[in-house]
Specification:
Number of domains: 2
CATH architecture of the largest domain: 3-Layer(aba) Sandwich
Radius of gyration: 19 Å
Number of strands: 12
Strand content: 25-35%
CATH topology of the largest domain: Rossmann fold
Strand order of the largest sheet: 6-7-8-3-9-10
Largest sheet: 6 strands, mixed
Number of helices: 10
């Protein structure tokens, strides 16, 4: 598979702290990849460098032939990268449907004047946007909830709505920051199924941060491990789960990764 995103030597410093230290990483088109590591390893900081929230001090980030360094977040979304956040960031005063419509804004062509005058092209685009939003809600399992206020959804459904809003921008690459955090087992299974369908049915490449090892090991084709901002391991799940550097840095001595239930003692 061809590389969709390539990061080389990415470094981010806050004061005297190097949060991301010369990280190289490649995401192949059509893959599902994960980024793991202990708390404070630099995972979300790395995501923020990819999406323009932070600018790295050193290194290069190339996506589909475009350099992302120096680009604003809205420009990066326009290039085809969308994301969700570790803490849910829905528009609580908006309905489920309105939240997904907001996600499509970057792809809409109507001008402010056209919106005021309600031109035929503006009305047609709005109708198409609503139809697409309803299709996305059906896809993630929220069909019938269009008029529900987002804040009234159960926690797991709010996570699904965030994903629907993100894919409303029609991304090539979707970054998920701990999508299964706080979910019960049934909700987690729904999330795993959704990630597979995003890739298999929508053709979206997925890159996620996740602490649930059962999710990571069962969903990922490639895993990158950070510790104190440095990449310490990379490879297929079967390789990473037995890497002594991962065992020591991420789980502590005497613990192995277990694909069926998370962790187990030696």
């Amino acid at each position: 598979m061809a590389a969709l995103l390539e990061a080389k030597g990415v470094t981010k410093v806050f004061g005297g702290l190097t949060a991301v230290d010369r990280v190289d990483l490649t995401i192949e088109k059509g893959s599902i990849a994960s980024l793991i590591g202990p708390n404070g390893a630099g995972k979300t900081t790395f995501f923020n460098c990819l999406t323009g929230l932070y600018q790295p001090e050193k290194g290069s980030i190339t996506f589909d032939g475009h350099s992302l360094v120096g680009q604003r977040s809205d420009q990066i979304i326009g290039l085809g990268i969308a994301r969700t956040y570790q803490n849910i960031r829905l528009f609580k005063g908006m309905t489920v449907l309105e939240n997904v419509l907001v996600g499509q804004h970057v792809r809409m062509k109507a001008t402010p004047l056209g919106a005021v005058l309600r031109t035929p092209s503006q009305r047609a685009e709005e109708r198409q946007a609503r139809e697409f939003a309803q299709q996305l809600l059906e896809f993630v399992g929220l069909g019938g909830e269009e008029e529900t206020l987002s804040t009234n959804l159960p926690y797991g459904d709010q996570r699904l709505l965030e994903i629907a809003r993100a894919i409303g921008s029609r991304p090539q690459l979707l970054l998920l920051d701990e999508p299964a955090a706080g979910m019960n087992p049934r909700e987690t299974e729904r999330m795993i199924d959704l990630v597979h369908r995003l890739r298999d049915k929508k053709g979206i490449t997925v890159f996620l941060i996740e602490h649930d090892m059962k999710v990571v090991m069962n969903i990922s084709e490639n895993i990158t491990v950070l510790d104190y901002g440095k990449k310490i391991a990379e490879g297929k799940p079967v390789e990473v789960r037995s890497d002594p550097r991962v065992v020591e840095a991420y789980l502590g001595p005497g613990v192995l990764l277990d694909t069926s239930g998370g962790t187990e003692k030696k």
